[in-house]
């Protein structure tokens, strides 16, 4: 609304940055307000702190309510149409009195938009196409699980072309954000024309948004996801990759450091600046790799997952960047299901599939009896399964270990599915929230605490119960959850299923800062779901997680000793 009113970019960007800060908080906002104060948050000054406090106290913001009276919400919604920015939306509103997407569609069909300056028949049709695409998208962002496979398919097809030297996904996919706005692909080549022709002609294309020598944009027929391709010379690839990976706020910081080092940095080059502030274009430095870009301005290379302006620049300056966890660090998978409950393969088949993928140990954790829809196990079936796990473990040999566990429901009343004397017989116990996730904060928090404080529970599975794009996370008091986990020594899971990615990165980071151990699991119900592990790894990397902080990176003997020390 501030954009539509023509307010200063600094003003509306301040609100946007504050919103991003709050969205990524690993703690309850009220707790921060009461403890450190809102101004302790990055980008929150006196004015914004007062407005946020007003919302915390009253549940609304008077400034926002006044803005809604001035700027129709339908005009804001028009900015969700591809190609309609604040300037165009304001023009439609102020010159044609259009205040909704439906009114805009009617005006375009009636050929009224072409009467405006800078508009024509083609522009009008683009508006109509953009409205159709907007209606195909349920939200403005696409889950990583849907976007990444599509993006990888397109990139692989481009990499197979003889004209392509190299290529990478950039943007929020490369930073492994759980949802993305659009897809950015970079390709190095000296002959861009055939690459662009192939790109816009792919069978997935629903609409060509633009086609040029160095950049083309398409919209996918299914889902309306926008994909942008940039083709550039190989010697400029590193500079462009750094720029288009982002994030915006990380790049702003990097550009400021570059200026202090005597360079102007953009997607094309590092250009020296003389004493008068003039650019020495004839001395521009082109970087083929990102490492060269960071090196030129005095920083080590920063992993893409960290580039969110969350302290990574300061850590890079001080030599404090973490050694992030990687897929090769993973030794075990401690959460998976078999045909005993709702899995598709037997215990032996899951063990063989995990071994084939380089794992050294697994835990079989089928559902407990409350999960009737998942064919959960009662005590008798659980004990029968234990015998089979032991047989399979013996058959797998000394270089692979199969442990017996359960994914036990935390019931709606806070009780656990199995009594302590049963849990004591298991090698490993996962406790998870599956039902009644809409309970009030106090009730559902206490349910989780009951599991955390049980000495037989080793891991809290997908702690917040979210399904990205489908189900909001439970309203847990994460401050209390973390405090209890730190005290009890229970581990918290990063569930690698890309529709979960739970714990999210900001919570994972707070957990390790408090000394809480993590576990990255696939929650696999069939063999191919074990290949989703890297989604969990990348989420952990976003949370600054190092290998030693994740229990299933440990050698099997260390893992066994840790579990036994917890009373098993």
Q: Layout of SSEs?
A:
Blueprint: H1 9-23, H2 29-34, H3 46-58, H4 62-70, H5 73-78, H6 86-96, H7 101-109, H8 121-136, E1 142-143, H9 144-159, E2 166-169, H10 171-174, E3 179-180, E4 183-188, H11 192-200, E5 205-211, E6 215-220, E7 226-232, H12 237-245, H13 248-260, E8 263-265, E9 270-272, H14 290-296, H15 312-317, E10 332-333, H16 347-356, E11 361-364, H17 379-395, E12 401-409, H18 420-423, E13 428-432, H19 441-452, E14 459-461, H20 478-488, E15 491-495, H21 505-513, E16 518-521, H22 533-542, H23 556-565
Parallel strand pairs: 4-7, 10-11, 11-12, 12-13, 13-14, 14-15, 15-16
Antiparallel strand pairs: 1-3, 2-4, 5-6, 6-7, 8-9
Molecular structure report:
- The protein is an alpha/beta fold and 568 residues long.
- It is built from 23 helices and 16 strands.
- The protein has helices spanning 9-23, 29-34, 46-58, 62-70, 73-78, 86-96, 101-109, 121-136, 144-159, 171-174, 192-200, 237-245, 248-260, 290-296, 312-317, 347-356, 379-395, 420-423, 441-452, 478-488, 505-513, 533-542, 556-565; strands at residues 142-143, 166-169, 179-180, 183-188, 205-211, 215-220, 226-232, 263-265, 270-272, 332-333, 361-364, 401-409, 428-432, 459-461, 491-495, 518-521.
- The strands form four sheets. A seven-stranded parallel β-sheet has the order 10-11-12-13-14-15-16. Strands 2-4-7-6-5 form a five-stranded mixed β-sheet, with helices on both faces. Strands 1-3 form a two-stranded antiparallel ribbon.
- β6 and β7 form a beta hairpin.
- α12 (237-245) packs across α14.
- The protein is globular, with a radius of gyration of 26 Å.
- The chain starts with 8 loop residues before the first helix and ends with a helix.
């Amino acid at each position: 609304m501030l954009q539509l009113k023509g307010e200063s970019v600094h003003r509306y960007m301040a609100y946007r940055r504050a919103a991003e800060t709050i969205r990524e908080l690993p703690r309850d906002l009220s707790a921060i307000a009461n403890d450190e104060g809102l101004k302790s948050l990055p980008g929150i000054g006196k004015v914004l702190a007062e407005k946020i406090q007003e919302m915390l106290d009253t549940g609304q913001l008077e400034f926002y309510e006044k803005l809604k009276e001035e700027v129709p919400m339908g005009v804001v919604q028009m900015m969700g149409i591809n190609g309609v920015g604040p300037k165009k939306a304001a023009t439609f509103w102020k010159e044609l009195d259009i205040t909704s997407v439906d009114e805009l569609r009617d005006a375009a069909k009636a050929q009224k938009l072409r009467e405006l300056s800078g508009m024509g028949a083609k522009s009008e049709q683009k508006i109509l196409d953009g409205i159709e695409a907007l209606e195909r998208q349920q939200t403005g962002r696409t889950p990583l699980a849907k976007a990444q496979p599509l993006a990888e398919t397109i990139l692989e097809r481009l990499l197979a072309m003889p004209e392509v030297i190299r290529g990478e996904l950039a943007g929020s996919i490369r930073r492994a954000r759980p949802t993305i706005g659009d897809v950015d692909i970079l390709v190095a080549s000296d002959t861009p024309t055939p690459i662009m022709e192939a790109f816009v002609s792919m069978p997935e294309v629903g609409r060509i948004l633009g086609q040029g020598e160095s950049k083309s944009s398409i919209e996918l027929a299914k889902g309306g996801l926008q994909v942008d391709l940039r083709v550039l010379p190989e010697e400029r690839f590193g500079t462009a990759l750094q720029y288009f990976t982002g994030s915006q706020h990380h790049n702003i910081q990097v550009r400021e450091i570059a200026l202090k080092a005597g360079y102007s940095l953009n997607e094309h080059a590092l250009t020296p600046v003389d004493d008068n502030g003039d650019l020495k274009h004839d001395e521009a430095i082109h970087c083929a790799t990102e490492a060269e870009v960071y090196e030129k301005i005095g920083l080590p290379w920063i992993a893409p997952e960290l580039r969110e302006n969350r302290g990574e620049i300061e850590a890079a300056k001080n030599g404090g960047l973490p050694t992030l966890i990687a897929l090769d660090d993973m030794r075990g998978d401690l959460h998976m299901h078999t045909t005993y409950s709702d899995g598709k393969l037997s215990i032996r088949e899951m063990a063989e599939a995990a071994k084939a993928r380089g794992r050294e140990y697994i835990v079989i954790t089928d559902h407990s009896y409350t999960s009737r829809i998942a064919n959960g196990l009662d005590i008798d079936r659980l004990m029968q399964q234990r015998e089979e796990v032991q047989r399979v473990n013996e058959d797998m040999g000394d270089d692979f270990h199969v442990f017996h566990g359960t994914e036990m429901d935390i019931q709606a009343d806070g009780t656990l599915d199995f009594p302590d004397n049963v849990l004591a017989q298991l090698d490993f116990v996962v406790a998870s929230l599956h039902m009644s996730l809409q309970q009030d904060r106090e009730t559902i928090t206490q349910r989780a605490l009951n599991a955390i404080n049980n000495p037989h529970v080793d891991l809290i599975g997908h702690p917040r119960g979210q399904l990205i794009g489908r189900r909001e996370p439970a309203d847990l008091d994460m401050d209390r959850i973390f405090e209890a986990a730190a005290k009890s020594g229970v581990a918290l899971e990063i569930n690698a299923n890309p529709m979960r990615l739970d714990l999210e990165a900001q919570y994972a980071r707070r957990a390790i800062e408090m000394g809480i151990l993590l576990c990255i699991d696939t929650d696999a119900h069939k063999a191919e779901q074990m290949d989703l592990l890297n989604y969990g790894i990348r989420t952990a990397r976003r949370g600054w997680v190092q290998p030693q902080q994740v229990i299933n990176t440990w050698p099997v003997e260390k893992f066994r000793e840790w579990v036994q020390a917890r009373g098993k």
